[in-house]
Amino acid sequence: MSRTITRSPQDSPEAGQNSESVLSHGLKQRHLSMIALGGVIGAGLFVGSGVGIAAAGPAIVLLFMGTGALVMLIMRMLGEMSAARPSTGSFSVHAEEEIGSWAGTTSGWMYWLMLCAGVAAEATAAGTIMHSWVSFIPAYGWVALFMVFFCASNLTAVKNFGEFEFWFSAVKVAAIVAFLVLGVLGVLGVFGSAPGTSHLTGHGGFFPTGAAGLAAGLLTTISGFAGLETVTIAAAESDHPSRNVARAVRTAVWRIAVFYIGSMAVVVTLVPWNDPKVATDGPYVTVLDQLGIPAAGTIMQIVVLVALLSAMNANIYGSSRMAYSLVNRGQGPRFLGKVTRGVPAAAVLASCVFGFAAVIAGIVWPDTVFAWLLNIAGCSVLVVWSIVCLTQLKMRRRLEREAPELLSVRMWGFPYLTWLALAAILGVFAVMAAGADGRHQLIGTAVVVAVLAGAGHLKQRRDRRAAESA
Fold first, then answer.
1. Which of 230, 250, 335, 339 could form a cystine bridge with 318, CB 3.0-4.6 A?
2. Residue 238 pairs with which residues in a beta bridge?
3. pTM (two decimals)
4. DSSP three-state, residue 215
5. Residue-wise pLDDT tens digits, 288-319
6. What are 343's strand-pairing partners?
7. Residue 407: CB atoms within 10 Å
8. What is the DSSP string of 43-90?
């Protein structure tokens, strides 16, 4: 059933809410711009990309070009929908309105699960780094400290989240820019002899591991982009949601290409892809050591720690806002909708508790429960992106009919590039299905999706019956 689109429903209390239960608008344009940039620069780029290089060799550059292009299309779709209708639930709200409750429930709770699992993984990695520096405090002690700190900061005011992310992102962006400058100088031979194309064509060639390596590297590159959607969630709590999200998306899109593709090209040009240090120490440390930069390992450990803490902060924020939006649409336990001083306190606490429980699972059941959780989380982003594509196809056509003036951001090449993005996602699912590990991930994800979609469908039927009897 079609609904008339209004300009900014998030600017006023939702149905059934009073002014005390509405989220605050404490984020500024500078916060969103840095959140958009920092959201795609995580520990997955600084460390996880080394696994992708070890799997695919120099061809990792092509994989990042492909996945980067897909991410830019998804960001553009999200920007179009969020600029037209800012909402704390972002794509989940849009999916519910355009497709049905089952789509909103599935995409929203899958995203929540992904972010909470990310909190656990990032907290664990950050705790390990801190334990290596301050060994008398165990790693789980550092994890507990980080969880308490970021939970407390997210419980105070949204501007605290914005300020932390602004400075965290500034550090990450500065590190990437510095790395690119040093890397280009290294390629030109300023730090010794220029490598030319020796590392690109030697050591087995540009495609040293063949199709199997490309498939393994593909999954790694995609997981590195998970979480970029947070900026469209955060936009609803900014002073000018529509305008701010439009600007943030526009600035983030081209920088994805520069940061990811540029840095990967520098890495595989300067060091052999099969150097064991690329996977163990990380590609950035390996390159900086190659260039003779003093204390390269320590510098990058600090940057990685900042990236991990930034991701923790952003994931707690994003998961809490998604949970808040879902329960206020009747798609979760009502107590999670409690708002205190403009902050969804109950949702923040629930997200932190789940994240910490996942950390405990990683200690007690690392190869069963925790591995299963991470596998489901890894597939969640693909499920969410698929629903984003389907939602944008319907919402764009409805906007053009009912409120074309709201299209301040437009998806490129609509509808062809949207369909191309959806086909690419389905292609990734097909690649996963071809391998045993990928099939296990798909089966587990399919079970969770079926449960969530079933619950959403039941709610959809109840709502329809209630509307018919009214």
1. 230
2. 27
3. 0.88
4. helix
5. 888 888 888 888 889 888 888 888 888 898 89
6. 340
7. 16
8. HIIIIIHHHHHHHHGGGHHHHHHHHHHHHHHHHHHHHHHHHHS--TTT
- Check if the beta carbon of residue 45 is closer than 8 Å to that of residue 259: yes
Confidence of residue 99 (pLDDT cuts 50, 70, 90): very high
- Average pLDDT of the residues of the chain: 84
* C-alpha 441: how far from chain center: 18
Mapped onto helix, strand or coil, the DSSP state of residue 225 is: coil
Q: Rounded to whole angstroms, what are the CA distances from 228 to 41, 54, 71, 79, 80? A: 9, 25, 9, 11, 15
- Angstrom distances, CA of residue 142 to CA of 122, 134, 281, 354: 12, 10, 22, 17
**DSSP letter assigned to residue 261:** I
Q: How far is CA 82 from the centre of its chain?
A: 16
Residues 341-354, mean pLDDT to the nearest whole number: 89
HEC secondary structure over 369-426: HHHHHHHHHHHHHHHHHHHHHHHHHHHHHHHHHHCHHHCCCCCCCCCHHHHHHHHHHH
Q: Which of 342, 428, 450, 449 is nearest to 111 (CA)?
A: 449
38 in helix, strand or coil? helix
